[in-house]
Amino acid sequence: MAAKLLEGKAIAEKLKAVVRQEVDLLRAKQNRAPKLIALQIGENASSAVYVKAQRKVAESLGIEYWLETLPDTISQAEAEQKISDFNKDHSITAIIVQLPVPKGIDAKKLANTIWPAKDAEGMHPQNLGRILLGNYKIGPCTAMAVMELLESTGEKLYGKEAVIVGHSEIVGKPLALMLLNKLATTTVCHIATGERGVLADHVKRAEILVVAVGKAGIIKGDWVKPGAVVVDVGINRVGDKIVGDVEFEAASQRASYITPVPGGVGPITTTILMRNTVELFKISF
Ligand code: NAP
Fold first, then answer.
1. Is 142 in the pocket of ligand 1 (CB under 6 A)?
2. pTM of this structure
3. pLDDT digits (tens, 9 = 90+) for 46-62
């Protein structure tokens, strides 16, 4: 079976159209637009790429985007004070801390000083807790992007065997809760699963397989259950190529749907960041 490609760009464009329409309506009603502020500490090439992409998407959707760059000599306390100032500023409706941050800055502690009502990345414990309760509009961008990809297939998640490989706080763990909320029978694999030598056993059962590890080819193509939906979150540089965590060619002969890498999850995440920003704007009045 040759799998259908789950391309993120087309899904991102559909999501953008919805977000743009919402921003237009909200602006007409409130006479102002959502405003996302990105806090960057020091200059960093990869952060600059994200900022450029975020600004482009934000502005195309009518969202104000503002970058605040602090010197890399700043202390943790001073950076946290800056976030506190943004929290209290009514003109700012959403905040994101750009990664990476310089050594000596605790990025998680810094991000947790963002008020939940201004948390564009959906990573504040209170916002993560809402996912646990199944009552959420915003969430971690990558996990939310995976859900959009899965929903785009039209396949029911109810009762399906879903296997996630990787249990990070930004992808695997929140995604496990999101899938559980849809009543998928959800298994989460991690380093101990690999060490015990049973990773293949779990993957072979998966009707929905999501892999977010960061190791090229860790999932062998012949482990993929025929007809499975495969979402490969991994990004790995191999020589001059970017590849995922799943052996793409072999897996796509067995899967019903599969994401390309690059071009699967990645193009959707920035749009989800903007959707989160709009959801936060709605609760700011
Ligand atoms: P991470 O925090 O390093 O998490 C990787 C996970 O994989 C951990 O839970 C780790 O378990 C698990 N793992 C490691 N070796 C394993 C093995 N042999 N068997 C089973 N599980 C294993 O990474 P992340 O931030 O979630 O990102 C994962 C990948 O997704 C990376 O390639 C990253 O670049 C990519 N990513 C892509 C996007 C996008 O927009 N496309 C966004 C975010 C991330 P332990 O923690 O127990 O070691």
1. yes
2. 0.97
3. 889 999 999 999 999 99
